[in-house]
Specification:
Layout (H helix, E strand, L loop, with lengths): L2 E11 L5 E11 L3 E5 L6 H8 L9 E4 L2 E2 L4 H5 L2 E4 L11 H12 L4 H9 L15 H13 L5 E5 L7 H18 L2 E6 L2 H4 L5 E6 L2 E7 H10 L2 E6 L2 H12 L3 E3 L2 E5 L3 H13 L4 E7 L3 H8 L11
Parallel strand pairs: 3-8, 3-9, 6-7, 7-8
Antiparallel strand pairs: 1-2, 1-4, 4-5, 9-10, 11-13, 11-14, 12-13
The protein binds adenosine-5'-triphosphate (ATP) and magnesium ion.
Amino acid sequence: MGHCIHTTGLNYFFSKKEQVLHDIHLHVPEGSIYGFLGPNGAGKTTTLRLLLGLLRQQSGDIHIFGQPFEPNRQSILGRIGSLIESPSLYSHLTARENLMIWQKVYQCPKNRIEAVLRLTGIADTGEKKTGQFSLGMKQRLGIAVALLHAPRLLILDEPTNGLDPGGIVEMRELLRQINQESGITIVISSHLLSEIEKLVTDVGIIHRGKMQFEGPLDELMRVRRSHSSLVIETGAPDKALALAQQTCGEARLINGKINLPHQDKTTIAALNHQFVMADIPVYQITGKEDDLESIFMQMTATTPTQNPLL
Ligand SMILES: Nc1ncnc2c1ncn2[C@@H]1O[C@H](COP(=O)(O)OP(=O)(O)OP(=O)(O)O)[C@@H](O)[C@H]1O
Ligand SMILES: [Mg+2]
């Protein structure tokens, strides 16, 4: 699959002493919804600003749509829609009037205005001034502006910031719909994995200006599984522990229950069979999966020793 965005070796210094980005490699697949994750101050906005030419590139390469950014800047930017931080709107104008201004700037067909209003679900806001819009409506209008010129790539910096849980779900559905209907690639940054794990197909995790992980969401899920454990409650812990250690090697007793690293189904069944054959009552077998949030926390742990993935 082609890459919509491909960067290598991006470094960025705001001052001589402060290196904010270290050797950032991004590979955003064409047509994907790419979650760019990292805690506050990780370098998400700085990276996205570089991709949009809002900051001057200091090193490395940026390829977008298969073309090097600098010599093709104009034509590349003409095919990107973006929303960095909060949208800049004229608060004394309605949604339609705001879009009319941008339609003239972009010189795109007038019928795009109704199209993006419908797409973002704000077609019936009528005479309401955007100054009276809720935060969720403002974000929708910001996305409508970003989509006006029918871009191939949408870059959104924390579009769910400040939205309530319902608003976050609505935003997710909106972005999924946009991606599915028009095949547009979406890059969305967030500091909360739980907020976007249901939406994204690919993930990049940045911490202190360094990429910690990049790959399909499935791969992150596999990492999660490898961090999962098995807990078995029996009527004869010590006897059961000895058997479990024989079968699986690593096994520990925690609060009278056997704890094992992730096991495949066959091993679990075999172990259960052994317990039953040894007259050990088995009360409960449960799998405990680390949720993605805790894996994310481990990946972005402040010291390498706290980070089992490094
Ligand atoms: N204009 C600037 N001048 C100096 N330092 C800056 C500037 N903008 C950002 N930084 C620094 O760069 C680092 C990364 O900031 P950035 O805004 O890219 O992080 P972020 O991942 O977007 O964080 P957040 O989740 O809080 O938005 C921070 O340490 C920040 O203080
Ligand atoms: Mg930011």
